[in-house]
Amino acid sequence: MHIMEGFLPGPWWQIWFALSIPVIVYGIYKLNRLVKENREILPLLAVAGAFIFVLSALKLPSVTGSCSHPTGTGLAAILFGPAITAVLGTIVLLYQALFLAHGGLTTLGANVFSMGIVGPVVAYTIYKVGMKMNLNFYLVVFLAATLGDWATYVVTSLELALAFPADPGGVMGSFKAFATIFAVTQVPLAIIEGAITALIFKYIIQVRSDMLTRLNVLSDAAISKIKGAIS
Amino acid sequence: MRNLLDDYALVSRIRYRNVWLKLTIAAFGLLVGVSSTSPATPLFIALSMGFATLFFGKTPLKFYLTVLLIPMGFAIVGSLVILFFFGSGSEVFYFEVFGYRLTANAGGLEMAILVISRTLSGMSCMFFLALSTPVIELFAVLKRSGIPDSVIELSMLMYRYIFVFLEVSMSIKHAQTVRLGYTNLIRSIYSVAMLASTLFIRSYEQGEKLYLAMNSRCYDGKLTLFETKRPIRATEAVLASIYAVAALSLM
Question: What residues of chain A lie within 8 A of the CB of B194, using their CB?
Answer without folding.
Answer: 199, 203
